[in-house]
Design brief:
Length: 66
């Protein structure tokens, strides 16, 4: 499932990259993993990820990091 996936992490994750989540895609499936534990992978759909990102942009999750 994860072979050939090009992983991408945010430029906001810091210089060493230990505080980051990496995202990749294969067809209609999005894969997400933590850079310090890459064996743990979750999957979701493009539609669900888009809804989550819209919520983040709207500030719905600010209380989790504030």
């Amino acid at each position: 499932m994860v072979e050939g996936i090009k992983w991408q992490k945010s430029s906001f994750s810091g210089g060493n990259g230990e505080n980051c989540i990496e995202v990749g895609a294969r067809a209609e499936v999005v894969v997400i993993r933590e850079s310090d534990d890459p064996a743990q992978i979750i999957t979701t759909s493009l539609e669900k990820l888009a809804a989550f990102i819209a919520g983040v942009k709207a500030g719905e999750f600010d209380h989790l990091v504030g």
